UniProtKB/TrEMBL annotation:
SUPFAM superfamilies: Tetrahydrobiopterin biosynthesis enzymes-like (SSF55620). This is 6-carboxy-5,6,7,8-tetrahydropterin synthase. Its EC number is 4.1.2.50. GO terms for molecular function: 6-carboxytetrahydropterin synthase activity. Belongs to the PTPS family. QueD subfamily. InterPro entries: 6-PTP_synth/QueD, 6-PTP_synth/QueD_sf. It catalyses: 7,8-dihydroneopterin 3'-triphosphate + H2O = 6-carboxy-5,6,7,8-tetrahydropterin + triphosphate + acetaldehyde + 2 H(+). Pfam families: PTPS (PF01242). Pathway: Purine metabolism; 7-cyano-7-deazaguanine biosynthesis. It is an enzyme of class 4 (lyase). Signal peptide: none annotated.
Amino acid sequence: MILFVDALTVIDFSYLCSKRGAVGESWIVDMTLHGQLNEESMVLDFAKVKKQIKAIIDDTIDHKLAIPSQLACSYSSQHGRVQFDGEFGGHHLAMSAPDEAVCIVEGETISEATVIAFLKQQILPKMPDNVKDVEIELRPEPSRSFYYHYSHGLKKHDGNCQRIIHGHRSDIGIYLDDISMPRLQKEWAERWQDIYLGSEEDLIDVSALKHITARDNDYAFAYSASQGYFELAISKSRCDLIPCDSTVECIAEYLAGEIKAQYPERKVKVKAFEGVGKGAIAYA
């Protein structure tokens, strides 16, 4: 017997790529369970699928930085903290954070295939005996317009969004006088492709870093949140500083203001997404 649950959840995370550095991603998770009927004449109660399996996914990879084991040579873990320091595509990136901010995925790269294998290893041992196998499909949301991959951290967030490198794959909608503007959408999507959106409030002098070392032409960020102390050093060319928090509400408002400055006589509307099916709208 086969049980399926489409769009069980969405994984919003960032992963480390040898060429692109930190890449924000959002994948919809479709799940299929193979097994025998239990005493309730079910493979598994849908409520348990949605609650238990989603919890496993949330705990293992969601809102984390996924590092392929091939790149883990630059990674170390001790005393409840992780850190790495490396060059990716000619750009520097170093991070220090609590353990739960990172996961290691076996393989040379982070891809749908390697993450599926990783998740299967986490999920199947926790299933009841009548569940014999699980199949997982990871897919991006079909794009309505241009999109970008971004990473960020929200120090004021009580949950996992406070992790200093996690991210999203996000569509962007820009309208002038209620007319969609694909050219502007493309410009911002290209500007923010594989970007780290850093809040000016979290910027520190590179000499103040405690656990990692910055290089020339790096920005340094640090903050304390409920999960612990976070540090990041990143090449300025891979970062865009914004004068606000990087919540999707603030991103939408920031974009609307920037575009309004270009087109002061036009009514501006920005529809900014945070991953799949959610986001914020701002006007200027």
